[in-house]
Structure formats: structure tokens, C-alpha cells
Design a protein that fits this description.
- By secondary structure, the chain is of the alpha/beta class.
- Helices cover about 35% and strands about 20% of the residues.
- The strands form 2 sheets. It has a 6-stranded parallel beta sheet with strand order 6-5-4-8-7-9, with helices on both faces. A 3-stranded mixed beta sheet has the order 2-1-3.
- The longest helix is centred in the C-terminal third of the chain and has 19 residues.
């Protein structure tokens, strides 16, 4: 909740903190008050009821609806860096990818509106608050959006453990979208066809592929390092 307070401040319509003497919750309440947020106190049964069965850690906040960035707006960015998720259905993976995207170069996260993990409380928790700072873009058709991006001059790099090219040898300093496939099946055929090229992260080993969120972090780090070097 701290990130929601930092991001929205007094725009939060309601904040409820569990009453008691837990230092962590007391610090959170003071942080909210310092940002102009009115804090309500309530017992745990009240928070359990307000969360409607969801998991909470002694605090609840009602924040403005997350803003989604139009895809066309992303394409106007000369230094575009984005992660496209093709059928990532695990909310833990989705949230972890969002956290990496925010931490490593403020990359955008793009996903199709079908067959993908929704933006649920589980996704928010997995992002550890990063979702409040993320550039999020949901598109009707992922392969259609990638085709549009390629036409606009954006490089589309699909991550594939069997690809002959290693990602570190690909120039990621220009407008780039990195595509990560489903946890079990990889990229769909139509999405693969929309890629400019495919690349692997590490040489083949005992484990064939990396977890989607790990692959996102590694690939974004590679792009971040390349871009920092090119700017010096």
C-alpha cells in the first residue's frame, strides 16, 4: 500500500489500517498521514470483510483505477522499450514482470486482452507496488499490435531458448519490444511471425527455458546495459 500512497497521495478515496500496536502498520499509517491521506482505524474482522475474501496485510486502500496507455502512444516514443507478454496466465509471473519493467528502464508492459492474466490483487501483490508506477498497455490482438509496431520501425525480438542468436549480440538501443511467450507453450505461431527476429538468453543447458518473469528481468537488464553504454 505504501506505493499506492506514494503514487496517488490524497487521491486515495479511503485508507483503512488495522488498529493495534504493530510497528509496521503504525509506520504505514504515519506515512499516509504525511502524504495528506486520511487514515481510518479498524479491527481485523472489519478489514477481512472489506477485502471480500482477498488477502491483506492489515491495510487496505481504495485507489483510482489504473491508467492504461494507448498502444499508438507507445509507438511515438523514440526510445521505446517494452515487454510483450504472449499468454502469460500466472498472476505471480505477470506481477513480477511488471516489477522488473519498472525497475529496469521503465519499460512498458504490453499484453493481449485474451488468454492473459488479468490485473488482479494477486498481480498487484506480486509486483510489490510497482504496478502503481508501470506503463501498462492492453491490446485487442497482440500479434496485430506487434505487426503495427514493426511497420512503425520498432524492432520486435521474440525470446526463444532454441533461437540461434544470443540476445547480447542484438542491438537493443533502438525502439524495441521484447516478446515473452506462455510459461508452457512459448510464443503462439502468429506472434512468432510478427517478430523481427528471435534470440535466446543463455546457451542451452539442463533447463531448457527460464521462468517468464526471470526471462523478462534478464532481457530488460541487457537492454538497459546497452542503452547506458550507448549514451556515454
Amino acid at each position: 500500500m505504501r506505493e499506492a500512497v506514494r503514487r496517488h497521495g490524497s487521491k486515495l478515496t479511503r485508507v483503512v489500517v488495522q488498529s493495534g500496536t504493530q510497528p509496521r502498520l503504525e509506520a504505514l499509517a504515519r506515512y499516509a498521514l504525511d502524504h495528506g491521506v486520511t487514515v481510518e482505524r479498524a479491527g481485523r474482522p472489519v478489514l477481512d470483510r472489506l477485502s471480500q475474501g482477498g488477502t491483506h496485510q492489515g491495510a487496505l486502500a481504495w485507489a483510482p483505477e489504473l491508467e492504461l496507455t494507448p498502444f499508438g502512444q507507445l509507438l511515438t516514443q523514440d526510445n521505446l522499450l517494452a515487454i510483450a507478454l504472449d499468454g502469460i496466465q500466472d498472476p505471480q509471473n505477470f506481477g513480477a514482470v511488471v516489477r522488473s519493467a519498472v525497475a529496469l528502464g521503465s519499460a512498458a508492459v504490453i499484453w493481449g486482452e485474451h488468454a492473459s492474466a488479468p490485473l488482479t490483487p494477486a498481480t498487484f501483490r506480486a509486483s510489490a507496488g510497482a504496478v502503481e508506477h508501470a506503463t501498462l498497455c492492453r491490446v485487442p490482438s497482440l500479434h496485430g499490435a506487434l505487426g503495427e509496431a514493426m511497420t512503425a520501425g520498432v524492432q520486435i525480438v521474440g525470446l526463444d531458448a532454441r533461437a540461434p542468436t544470443q540476445l547480447s549480440s542484438v542491438d537493443l538501443t533502438g525502439p524495441t519490444v521484447l516478446v515473452i511467450g506462455n510459461e508452457h507453450e512459448g510464443m503462439k505461431r502468429a506472434v512468432r511471425r510478427a517478430c523481427t527476429l528471435t534470440a535466446h538468453l543463455v546457451p542451452p543447458g539442463p533447463v531448457e527455458s527460464l521462468n517468464a518473469s526471470v526471462a523478462a528481468a534478464v532481457s530488460l537488464y541487457e537492454a538497459r546495459v546497452q542503452r547506458l553504454k550507448s549514451s556515454t
